[in-house]
Design goal:
mainly alpha, 24 helices, 70% helix
Length: 463
């Protein structure tokens, strides 16, 4: 029997701690609300003199993110629709045949989850979870907890540097931001200054290599691995619903005759819309926003599902995965309202300016973003909260706005490894609880955090 390596032992110990002490994600949102209210009272004399202003600021902001909330729900649903389509299911089964060891399966799932998250984080969630299940069927010597954790690593590493990165898309599309934030930010920040700048791409490449290696090291060996059967998880897929149609009306549901022309209409609109807003490849990239990406996902999902019946079933199955977004995002809107409606935003910006300089400010924001992400686990809604004072301080220190978005993204993703909010959509699919996999994700965070601090400092561009 081979002894466990130090990384593997640390992962197993962290898993034991997670099983005992990790609360639900909504608890963090409630705690963040109370901390923000307390902070505003502490630094704003006007709020101290009349606390009702604080209550009004919270209530006025509560529904400020309603448009963004729907966009986030559609990203979850669109990603699920795409990942659950028959062609992608066949791709997953072929990929699951590649690993020759349990550890190799964990590393491949981690790599695939990170690469797919650059396309869309909702797609990555479901794709990774389905890949983990398929790999577990093929490799019963693989630790199912490590496979499940690996399937989530796209959300904990590089997703925000991809095409569905919330902060970058918000900065490129003012229509996705609350009006108060548009007034603070000013001109949009194009994607060529955030996710498509060479420094950002270099950071992504380094993270993918390092995290894949850590996933391989952390996976328990065959002697210590717990497969799905040992954890009481049934990996047999449910039989698909019987096809065919009995009535004339049902024939329309099981025929592509009506769906395909609408899909063609959607792709035609996307082509014309992006062409109208761009004059070259760089402009075309900057023309991407939440609405264009969500429409693309839905149309591509419709094409791959082929019939209305299959598409409707996928959307129905995906909808429960969005419940956490619907519950928690209004509370983040309330936090934004308190931040912008009081002096709290300016007070935090002042602290950043006096405690840092242009060289180390990105690393400071990575740290702060990761910590705040424990309470507000949403890249987009948390950026709305942070952006006013983060960019204000950056401009005073001379750090480019685009690099601050990148630094924020790299730090924000780490928080997803440490708290369970974005694990909720896939845990039922995996048949596990958050505490079963968080020991492994905590270990990745332990390695990734110092790495990101170095990357944002070394690659910081000149103003």
């Amino acid at each position: 029997m081979h002894a466990a390596n130090p990384v593997e032992r640390l992962a197993l110990r962290a898993t034991s701690l997670a099983e005992r002490y990790m609360p639900d994600a909504f608890v963090f949102a409630l705690g963040a609300t109370l901390l923000t209210l307390g902070g505003a009272l502490l630094v704003d004399p006007a709020m101290q003199a009349d606390p009702s202003k604080l209550v009004l600021a919270w209530g006025n902001g509560f529904w400020e993110l309603i448009r963004f909330t729907l966009q986030m729900c559609m990203i979850v649903i669109g990603g699920y629709v795409l990942a659950s389509s028959p062609p992608v299911a066949r791709l997953i089964e072929r990929l699951a045949e590649l690993p020759r060891t349990g550890r190799g399966a964990v590393a491949l799932v981690a790599f695939a989850a990170m690469i797919s998250s650059l396309l869309n984080w909702g797609f990555s969630l479901v794709f990774g979870a389905l890949f983990a299940r398929a790999a577990a069927r093929r490799r019963p010597d693989a630790d199912y907890r490590a496979l499940a954790a690996a399937s989530f690593l796209g959300l904990g590493t590089v997703w925000a540097q991809g095409l569905s990165g919330s902060a970058a898309l918000q900065m490129a599309s003012p229509s996705s931001m609350p009006k108060a934030l548009v007034e603070i930010v000013g001109d949009p920040i194009p994607l060529t200054e955030t996710i498509f700048r060479w420094q950002s791409i270099a950071c992504v490449a380094i993270e993918v290599v390092v995290v894949t290696w850590v996933a391989w090291l952390a996976a328990p060996g065959p002697e210590r691995a717990k497969n799905a059967a040992a954890l009481g998880v049934d990996l047999r897929d449910e039989a698909p619903a019987p096809g065919g149609a009995c009535t004339p009306g049902e024939r329309f549901e099981h025929s592509p005759a009506l769906l395909l022309p609408v899909v063609l209409l959607g792709f035609s609109y996307l082509f014309l819309s992006i062409r109208a807003r761009s004059t070259g490849i760089a402009d075309a990239l900057n023309a991407l926003d939440f609405n264009t990406i969500n429409l693309f996902l839905l149309m591509l999902g419709g094409l791959l599902h082929w019939t209305p019946a299959s598409l409707m079933r996928a959307v129905k199955d995906a909808t429960p995965a969005a419940w956490g977004v619907l519950l928690q995002f209004p509370f983040y809107g309330g936090i934004f309202g308190v931040m912008t409606g009081s002096q709290l935003s300016h007070a935090i910006a002042s602290v950043f300016v006096h405690a840092s300089n242009a060289t180390f400010y990105p690393a400071v924001i990575v740290t702060y973003s990761a910590v705040l992400g424990m309470f507000v686990p949403s890249g987009g809604s948390k950026w709305v909260i942070e952006a006013p004072y983060v960019l204000q301080a950056a401009r005073q220190l001379g750090v480019p706005d685009g690099w601050m978005v990148v630094s924020y993204d790299l730090g924000e993703a780490i928080a997803n490894l440490c708290q369970p909010f974005w694990m909720l959509p896939i845990l039922a699919l995996l048949g596990l609880k958050a505490r079963d996999i968080m020991g492994f994700t905590w270990l990745v965070a332990l390695v990734l955090f110092p790495l990101v601090l170095v990357l944002v400092t070394v690659f910081c561009p000149a103003p």
